[in-house]
Amino acid sequence: MSDISLQRVGEFVRTVFELLWHRPDGMPAKEVLAFIPEIIQLTENEKGTSPINNVPKYERLIRLATIPLARVGWLAKSNKGRWRITEQGR
Q1: Nearest residue to 19 via CA among 6, 32, 9
Q2: Residues 6 or more apart whose Cβ sits within 8 Å of residue 38
Q3: Which residues, 6+ apart, have CB-to-CB distance to 87 below 8 Å?
Q4: What tens digit of pLDDT does each residue of 18-77 get?
Q5: CB-neighbour burial class of residue 17 (10 A; exposed 0-12, middle 13-18, buried 19+)
Q6: Is the distance from CB of 1 to CB of 60 less than 8 angstroms?
Q7: Computed from CA positions of residues 32, 63, 88, 37, in that sequence, does the dihedral angle turn out positive or negative?
Q8: Counting CB atoms within 10 angstroms of each CB, which of 7, 36, 83, 89 has the fewest?
Q9: Could you count the other beta carbons within 10 Å of the beta carbon of residue 37?
Q10: Parallel, antiparallel, or unpaired for β 82-85 and 27-28?
């Protein structure tokens, strides 16, 4: 994923937070990820699938990029796949 810039990763993360901002109960991660291509124009590379798990690269990138946000307490990720912004994250 080194071919995707840090700025681009920031665009994805910002979009995730914009999607969740007015949803205090959060959304299923699958829904969040499904909205991304409707909001951000993806490159062919980002649309391509990862050879490891056949998941679109942008989905894998977003899942990885949000791990630090969950660790610092800005984003809550439930065991059932629901994401929400925490008070600290706001």
Answers
A1: 32
A2: none
A3: none
A4: 999 999 999 999 999 999 999 999 999 999 998 888 999 999 999 999 999 999 999 999
A5: middle
A6: yes
A7: negative
A8: 7
A9: 14
A10: antiparallel
